[in-house]
Amino acid sequence: MGQQRTDARTAIEQGRTALGIELGSTRIKAVLVGEDHVPLASGGHAWENQYVDRTWTYSLDAVWEGLRAAVAELLDDAERQHGVRPATVGAIGVSAMMHGYLAFDAADELLVPFRTWRNTSTGAASAELTDLLGYNIPLRWSVAHLHQAVLDAEPHVPDVRFVTTLAGCVHWRLTGRKVLGVGDASGMFPVDPATHDYDADLVARFDAHVGDRLPGGLRDLFPQVLVAGQDAGALTAEGAALLDPTGTLQAGIPLCPPEGDAGTGMVATNSVARRTANTSVGTSIFAMVVLEKPLATVHHEIDLVTTPAGDLVAMVHCNNGASELGEWAGVFGRFATALGAQATPDEVFGVLLREALEGAADGGGLLSYNYLSGEPITGLEEGRPLIVRTPGSDLSLANLMRTQVYGAFATLSLGMRILAAEGVGVDAMFAHGGMFRTAGVAQRLLAAAVGAPVAVGRTAGEGGAWGIAVLAAYLVHGGGVDLGTYLAQRVFADAELEVVEPDPADVAGYTTYLDRYTAGLAIERAATEAI
């Protein structure tokens, strides 16, 4: 143990490390890894989006406050564990929630508050662009937000000079480079997997359609696209001060291309090869399936994006994930406290998840809708969390929690059914995110929901921050090896995975639940109209 601490200290002192930072929906996390990609220190900061003027947003002040807090906690953690405070690292990577709209003027000033992926106010633009391009343009994509602003003749549109994502914005401020990793870029505008750049034909169609309603062509306004391993600039003195105002962290550190949370999820689960898939469960939930060939039909429920290396991926993205489950955990945690019991939030969450395994396979007749916001896959512009049951249903804690977990996966299942009908094969689904820290529970129920084996590894709780740290390490140590080979041979060669096969009884019960859930969407729709 002492030798390991000494080795880690030496690696930190010599900068033989990589730092990954991810801005998730509810938490900003920073992870420092060694040359073996094992985490050495971490830091985090909780934050929440705000609903202001019917728009989901985060302020840029909150972005920088959160980043500084997460990095400060990581530096403290490194000093506490290893006796040294990092002054430099081998490389840095920045990741964040994909999509959304951050628009800047010629003076690099933000024109309107950040519009996140969660907003569903771009229906007209999404439909018009999908028809124009013959390519599904979801509501949350950056080009949909930009085009909706054009359609609405918003006053700021003539002043737009740069549009980017949250990861692209942070990277730009740290390095001065207006670039974006191909995976994140593919959630702004369609990317051609052959060129690993915005699709030239579709760019031409878009520019011709918009004409002089924008102050420049799409390539003038959007970031330059880079693939994993390419030079994306270095930390400037101003950028170093933004991350660490104490001056400990030095300028000059190289950065890998900034990526979206979908791309870092693929890396964190070693699912960048064809027929592999991964799912990430947080405020939103999505599944990524690396395709063997393009889909035959345009589906509004399915995004086509890419891996960080530029390979085509089908993405089922649901706006609503585990937040409602977290709300119930808070209720029961408070109940435990009122009874005089002392339990941490993680302990409460673990108890409730394990209780879900005791529930009936079909949820005992209960239905749970986790829709805090609109859900494009099911055609809902707004959400109302609901629990629905009949007089004959079995209301128990076990059934309540089982259906809460089912509710987190249900919309995802509807999207996966579409891919199955297209003949898309999945050999294994790799899962990550905090829900999977409680061994075996969410993993088993997800296997029933997707009808495929679900694997969880030791980095399940680290998620995208670890994934972007690996991409930062790949920038330095890749040596021309393709990303898939690097992950398989350098990162996951000795990885321990727990794989759970779908249980036939769970699958049958979940199928019954999902049929009932689909029929009950009319209740959810009525709730949005009545309340």
Cα-based radius of gyration, to the nearest Å: 22 Å
Subunit arrangement of the protein: single chain
For the record, the CATH class of one domain is Alpha Beta
> What would the CATH topology of one domain be?
Nucleotidyltransferase, domain 5
Question: Unreliable segments (pLDDT under 50, ≥5 consecutive)?
Answer: none
CATH architectural group of one domain: 2-Layer Sandwich
- Helix/strand structural class: alpha/beta
Amount of helix: 25-40%
What is the gist of this entry?
This protein has 18 helices and 22 strands.
Characterise this structure.
The chain contains 18 helices and 22 strands. The strands form 7 sheets. The chain has a 7-stranded mixed sheet. 40% of the residues lie in helices and 18% in strands. It has a domain of 288 residues: 2-Layer Sandwich (Nucleotidyltransferase, domain 5). The chain has 531 residues and is an alpha/beta fold. It is globular, with a radius of gyration of 22 Å.
Q: Layout of SSEs?
A:
Blueprint: H1 2-13, E1 18-23, E2 27-33, E3 39-46, E4 50-52, E5 55-57, H2 60-82, E6 91-96, E7 102-104, H3 123-133, H4 142-151, E8 162-164, H5 166-175, E9 179-181, H6 182-185, E10 191-192, E11 197-198, H7 200-210, H8 218-221, E12 224-226, H9 237-243, E13 259-260, H10 261-268, E14 276-281, E15 285-290, E16 303-306, E17 312-318, H11 323-338, H12 345-356, E18 367-369, E19 386-388, H13 397-421, E20 428-432, H14 441-450, E21 454-457, H15 464-477, H16 483-491, E22 497-500, H17 504-519, H18 521-530
Parallel strand pairs: 1-6, 6-13, 9-12, 14-20, 20-21
Antiparallel strand pairs: 1-2, 2-3, 4-5, 7-8, 10-11, 14-15, 15-17, 16-17, 18-19, 21-22
